Amino acid sequence: MISNFILAPILAHMLTAIVLMFFWKNVQAQKTISVIGNCIAFLVSLRLFALVWENGNMTMQMGGWQAPFGITFVSDTLSATMVVLTAIVSLAVGVYSTAATNISRIRYGHFFIFHFLIMGLMGAFLTGDIFNLYVWFEVVIISSFVLLTLGGKKRQMEGAVKYVTMNMLASSIFLTAIGILYGITGSLNIADLPEHVAAVENRGLVTVTALLFFVGFGIKSAVFPMYFWLPSSYHTPPSAIGAVFGGLLTKMGVYSMLRIFTVVFEPDDFILGVFIVIAILTMISGALGVINKRNMRRIFSYFIVCHIGYLIAGIGIYTELALVGVVFYLIHDVIVKSNLFMMSGIIQKIRMTQDVYRLGGFYKDYPRLSLVFAVILFSLAGIPPLSGFWPKIMLFQEAFKQESYVLLATLIFASFITLFIVARIWSEVFWKDLPKPNAEEIDHFATFHKRGKIALVLPVVGLAMVSLFIGLKASFVFEITERIAYELKNPSIYIESVMHHLK
Amino acid sequence: MELLLVALVGILYSAGIYLILRRSMVKLLLGFMMLGNGANILIFLMGELTKGRAPIIDGDSIHFTDVYADPVPQALILTAIVISFGLTAFAIILLKKVHATTGTDDLDSLNVQDLDI
Amino acid sequence: MKKNSRIRKRRLDTTILRTATNYLLPLLLLFSLFVLLRGHYLSGGGFVGGLIASIAFVLHSFAYSTRRTLRLFQVSPLLLIPIGLTLSFVSGFLPVILGSPFLTGIWFADSVAVIGSVGTALFFDIGVYLVVIGVVLTILFTISENV
Q1: A39-61: buried (b, 16+ CB within 10 Å) or exposed (e) per residue?
Q2: Is the CB of B35 inside 8 Å of chain A's CB atoms?
Q3: Closest Cα in chain B, distance from residue C111 (Å)
Q4: What is the span of the domain harbouring residue C132?
Q5: What is the dihedral of CA A287, A289, A290, A291, to 10 degrees?
Q6: What does the pLDDT look like over A204-248, one tens digit per residue?
Q7: Number of domains chain C is built from
């Protein structure tokens, strides 16, 4: 089925960004336009998902130039799911930042850049051309650079240097990989590539190229040797930005790996071995990093690193059930990680600190809010029946079935550390009494007017509801993820939907 | 010609990576520029060099009778140049700002954000 | 020391450069338009044209001052970005309304005297041209203000 509708989520955000530029100085108008734009994009994304769910893959050839010569946009179930997740997070964070973002930041174009970032993400999920993927990556990272450095505090700047350096390096490696891939195959269309890749005689060159892609995507998704930029930078910007970064940016790398290593390269045992080793090291280093941290957002940053390990491990196992686990975990992770950063933002607003030792008494002061936060934290830890539980079980099961016991042990170790830290956060921040109750400390949250409070709390509650839904209606999510895993294991469906006009 | 470009790509990549590994911010920036240019020439090289031919085929020709230059690498490089232009502009401003706020250009001394709290 | 730096700052705005700029600015702008319009089949296009036009303004800011260059624009160059983006967006979206894929080129049957065939691709390029001028001037003026 060929349709322009596939571009609708991208164009909705693009249009919002353009309109926002005309209202550069009008803060109130920017907030309104951003929320409206996000709502439209959300509805459009749901519609796209529904269309793909009913009619199968959708494709669209830019400018009418047929694949493999033109730029193709493809939406299979995985793309559509990622687009819906992006739209959910973007809507939540958009509403949240109308209250959480200060006015000078908005004057410098916070919302405008934010919509460009989301547009880039949508584009990366929907494109069917590997160079176009690179371009969308660049749109995303340039926007993220600006969002990260807006405000210009000292530690923000220093974190940004690491972030910018590593991301630029990753882009260079990605570009090099694309160049070599084009050299050996003469094509850039993801659906056209597998045929050419299979025909290359020098298999060593193919493996090297595949690993170059893995390094490029790996740096972007913060896997083992190159993860340090993430915990040095993600806690420095305001929490609304942290929420988008933590939820979506690293997942873009994982999505690209899923796409490239199922359709373009058929990974052999060597590459899968690399995946597993890297996954184990990522989980261990993330888990060890998280133990001695006091700053809540830094804890969450290390959690991101640690849990990327699960996803890479699932790709490394590479059975259909493992891929079900990966995609399920991806869905759960996007929602929960974004929510964690927004939650830490609310706590920051109330207590003016992120230090878990100086926090406390939250349950006593805000019992209802604490209940919502509990849902988020315990979904993260994977306590049944919340959303993190199901995919972890699948990954454990598959690791056991494949007899990779080291991996299984690491998975359990990482889960255990996660549970331990979550329990510690719960007892430090929520249960324990406030260390030195300080009358002069201003509760910024209480001074907010009612609309501001709603704008802060509503997105967090909404995403917590989504987490609950994923956990309690797991059968529905399983239906989606099973279909995605089936499509990933049978790339001919994807290829067929793009190249059908040549048959 | 190909051999010359191959050597050039190698030099640009190695010089770029060497400069990135230095501690100075300016050298970091120069390293990225070199790496970007190296990648561009690599793509150019990968599209097979065709001398003195335009990337255009006659509208009414059905078979490729004539040698023509591959237009794809040129389009890719153009896009990559535009992107690296934007990235470099951003990086210059960022590093200038970092230098202004911290007063140093030593990359190893930028560790405030890694202190817990 | 202070006097010294002032001399160094004034080194560029000589009479020769100013007089030359007065003639070069319109010439370069005209050339940028020429490059923009020939861009569809020959080398050129919105991006290069925009760069040439912004170089003209940069030259002007060297000869005079950034403030005087900004006065040449009635509005901030920042506003050129959304205008250009809108133009490109509309020219890309027009084929969608007519039932073709996004960004398909639609051409008028008759060609215009000097310009040649006119189609959506031209308007897309003009949008790019405006965006490039806006972006480059914003970046350069931001950098030069901070120096």
Answers
A1: ebbbebbbebbebbeeeebbbbb
A2: yes
A3: 19
A4: 17-146
A5: 90
A6: 999 999 999 999 999 999 998 889 899 989 988 999 999 999 989
A7: 1
Give the amino acid at A217: F
Domain residues for the domain of B29 are 2-50+69-105
With CB atoms and an 8 Å threshold, state whether A7 touches C102: yes
pLDDT tens digit sequence for B16-46: 999 999 989 999 999 999 999 999 999 998 8
State which amino acid sits at residue C92: G
Q: How far apart are alpha carbons A270 and A251 in whole angstroms?
A: 24
- Asked if B93 and C143 touch (Cβ cutoff 8 Å), the reply is yes
CB contact under 8 A, C102 and A24: no
For residue A82, give the nearest of A212, A250, A237 by alpha carbon. A250
Q: What is the ipTM of this complex?
A: 0.93
Q: Quote the pLDDT of residue A82.
A: 95
* pLDDT tens per residue, range A134-161: 999 999 999 999 999 888 788 888 889 9
* Residue at token pair 């220093």: A158
State how far the alpha carbon of B43 is from the alpha carbons of A69, A165, A198, A308, B75, in Å: 17, 22, 21, 31, 10
Q: How confident is the model at residue B117 (pLDDT cuts 50, 70, 90)?
A: low
Residue type at A321 in one-letter notation? L
Which candidate from A2, A11, A64 shows the least CB-CB separation from C104? Answer: A64
Beta carbons of B57 and B14 less than 8 angstroms apart = no
Task: Show the DSSP H helices in chain C as ranges.
Answer: 2-10, 15-37, 46-63, 66-72, 80-97, 120-146
How many domains, in total, are found in chain B? 1
**pLDDT the model gives residue C3:** 47
Orientation angle between helical segments A250-259 and A110-126, nearest 10 degrees: 10
Work out whether strand A58-61 and strand A72-75 pair parallel, antiparallel, or are unpaired.
antiparallel
- Look at residue B39 and tell me if it is in a domain: yes
Residue A248 to residue A88: CA distance in whole angstroms = 11
